[in-house]
Amino acid sequence: MPSLERDGGTGRRRQLSAPRLRADTPERAGLDPVELARLVDEVHALTAGARPWAAGAVAVAGRGPVVAVAEAAGWAVRYASYDPAADRGVELPPAARVPMTVDTPFDLASLTKLFTSAAAVQQIERGTLGIDARVGAFLPEFTGARGVTVRQLLTHTSGLRPELPLYDCPDATARHALLRAEAPIGEPGTHRYSDLNMLLLQFLLERITGRPLDVLIEDGITRPLGMSATAFGPCPGAAATEDQRRPWAKAHRGMLRGVVHDENAWALGGVAGHAGLFSTGRDLAVFCRALLAGGAYGPARVLGPDFVELMLTPPGLGFAVDQPWFMGGLAGGGAAGHTGFTGTSLVLDPATDTFLVLLANAVHPRRRPPDSRPRAAAASRLARAVRAAWQPGAFGPPGG
After folding, report:
1. Domain residue ranges in the chain
2. Is 267:392 a contact under the CB 8 Å cutoff?
3. Numbers of helices and strands, H then E, in the chain
4. What is the arithmetic mean of pLDDT over 256-277?
5. Which CATH number fits the domain 21-389, given the four candidates 3.30.1220.10, 3.90.1150.10, 1.10.260.40, 3.40.710.10?
6. pTM for the structure as a whole
7. What are the backbone dihedrals phi and psi of residue 59, each rounded to the nearest 5 degrees, phi first?
8. Collapsed DSSP state (helix, strand, coil) of residue 23
9. pLDDT tens by residue, 273-307
C-alpha cells in the first residue's frame, strides 16, 4: 500500500509514494519457486512444435512489489505468410525470424478496453461523468443508444450487438452514421459482450473532455505511471499477428506487424475504445501493480482507492471478475482481468496481491478458434505458487 505521513498543517494524511516493482526471487515475493519454474516451462511449451499455441509468448508475474517471473519464449516474427492449401504458416528462414524478448510490444486487442474503462472511471471520480448518466445526455446524435447508461457500457449490459462491420463502410461519414443509428438488440441489463460499448464510451469521453482517447490515456494513465512502452500504434517493433485475408478475416491486409489487428479499430484509424493499444509485459505489470496498490505507483496516483474498488467489484467496470475460464485457480476471491483476441491477457488478484500478464501472438500466422486453456493453466500455477508458499514452514509475505 502507499506510504503515508501526517501533513503538519492540516493533520491529514497525505500520500508519499507507492512501492515500485523490482525484480527478485520467488521467495522474496512469497511465492513457491517450484511452481513458478513449472509456469516458465509451460510458457515455453506453448511456443514449441510445428503447430504451437502461439509463435511466441511473454509471461510476467509477481506478488506485492516483486516481479518473480519475466520470461520470453518463441518468436516475435516466425512466419512470412499463411498457406491456406497446406493449412500452415510459411516459415521464415531462421536468420530472418525475430526472437521474442521480454520487452517486445504486443497488439493488446481487447486489453485496450481496460484503459478506456479506467479513463471513464477517472471522469466519474472527477464528477464530470455520472455512472448512471445516459448516452443521449452527451451524444444526442446517437439516437439508437440514447437511453443506454454509462454503467451499462462499462458492464456490457447495454444490449448492443457484439460489433458492426465498420471495416466495410466506404468512409468515416458512413462509419459514424452506422454507429449513431445502432440501437440495442437485447434487453438492457442482460450481459452481452460488445465492442460497441467501448466505442460509445470513447466518443462520450472525447465529447466531455474535448480530447481524443489516445491523449486521455497517455496523459491520465500511461505517462503518470511511467508506462513508456504503451501507446496506440503504429508500433514497428511489435510481435507480428496475422496474415489477414478473406475469407478467414474481415479485411484483406496481408501479414500484420505493428499495426492494429482488429479490423474495426483499423477502419477507425487505429485508435478505438475497444482495441488499438500496444504494450509490453513489464508495462502491464506496472498497470496491475498500480491497481493492486489502490491506484498509485511510485509518486503517481491515477485513481483513488474507492474508485479502484468500484472498478474491480463484481461485475466489474470494464474488468471481468472471477472468470475461471481464463483466470484458472486465481478465480473465486475477486480476481479481475481481461483477455485479448490476439492472445493477450492479464489477471490481478487483490486477495493475494498477485498479478499475471501473459502476452502471445496466438493469431500468427492466422486466427484460430480461441483457446484460453493455457491462460487458465498459467493462472492456476500462480495460484498454487501462493498456496505452496504459505504452507507451514514456508516463507512469508511478499517484499520482505
Report:
1. 21-389
2. no
3. 13, 19
4. 98
5. 3.40.710.10
6. 0.94
7. -120, 130
8. strand
9. 999 999 999 999 999 999 999 999 999 999 999 99
